[in-house]
Amino acid sequence: MLILGVESSCDETGLALYDSDAGLLAHALHSQVAMHQDYGGVVPELASRDHIRRVIPLSRQVLTQAGRGFKDLDAVAYTEGPGLAGALLVGAAFAKGLAFALGIPSVGIHHLEGHLLSPLLSGRPPVFPFVALLVSGGHTQLMRVNSVGRYELLGETQDDAAGEAFDKTAKLLGLEYPGGPAVSKLAEMGRAGRFKLPRPMINSHDLEFSFSGLKTAVLMLVRSQPSDAATHADIARAFQDAMVDVLVSKSVAALKATKLNRLVVAGGVGANKQLRAALDEGAEKNRFEVFYPELELCTDNGAMIAFAAALRWGKGLPPIDPTFSVRPRWDLAALG
Ligand code: KG4
Ligand code: ZN
Question: Are residues 161 and 254 in the same domain?
């Protein structure tokens, strides 16, 4: 089965070809980061227009790379939600149109399910059940993953997502969008311990998160301190240390609560080096295993969408149907 995956939920156009026997054949990505940088964040209308420009050339590119043609496809998978409505519509319209023209099924995939299952694409895939820490720009959730499509929400952020907190901290420190990689790089030069920021809800005895207070604490710190490079690096370090402490502590608590010993980390923030190092350390200390997607598949990509569709294949595919909708808001735990 050859599946074309289309991801267009935010600021990356991702296309990929996944073969259920041979695995991932090709994937290609166009990041809109440079385009949105002038505005300090994603401009939804510009995102949609750029997805339109990229989606057909990128799909040709992955097919050529794999030595295949449109006629070889058995299905087209696309991100149905959650995400920016206009951006989602581009991928959905393309996927639906292509599938209908080829007379093959199309499958709408939940973006977070894509992230969640992406470590299964790596050389060392986890087995079910496991706990997943989903940390992206829009979501911070702990899920119990029983099997494909069976996801139980254990806890989530009450306000800002982890990636959002990275992005806002970056802005406060005068760094460019997207903030995660920029804050992480700056934090490497910072000294630990000069500033201590709060670890919100770390002792709340549940699996919920909250990051808006941490963002406010960063704002107060930035305002009250000199704005030299060394101070900014120390603030970045203090922010990241607080964030990593909370994410590790809650992940360990989720493993204890579920009595599971496998943790999957997915979503853009999962690319964070310090988070990975702290989780690896926590795994050794608390005797659990951590699984990550390949680094290039941590942030948004088409491979995870094609792959999730391949795993869903066993559950039966939807009939060929040219009508479609997108779901800018979509609860992962409601999937079947
Ligand atoms: O999963 P993703 O690519 O898109 C969403 O579905 O949101 O995640 C994007 C988020 C952004 O907030 C970005 O700043 C953050 O992931 N991110 C990072 C790193 N790389 C990306 N955060 C911390 N450290 C990183 N290395
Ligand atoms: Zn994502």
Answer: yes
Q: What does the DSSP assignment read for 239-260? A: HHHHHHHHHHHHHHHHHHHHT-
**CB 108 near ligand 1, within 6 Å:** no
Rounded to the nearest whole angstrom, what is the distance from the C-alpha of residue 84 to the centroid of ligand 2? 11
Atom of ligand 1 minimally distant from the CA of 83: 6
**Ligand 1 neighbour 267 (Cβ under 6 A):** yes
Q: Is the CB of 180 under 6 A from ligand 1?
A: yes
pLDDT for 293-309, tens place per residue? 999 999 999 999 999 99
pLDDT digits (tens, 9 = 90+) for 77-107: 999 999 999 999 999 999 999 999 999 999 9
Domain of residue 165: give its range: 127-292
Q: Is residue 170 part of a domain?
A: yes
Q: For the chain, state the CA radius of gyration.
A: 20
Q: Is the pTM of this model over 0.85?
A: yes
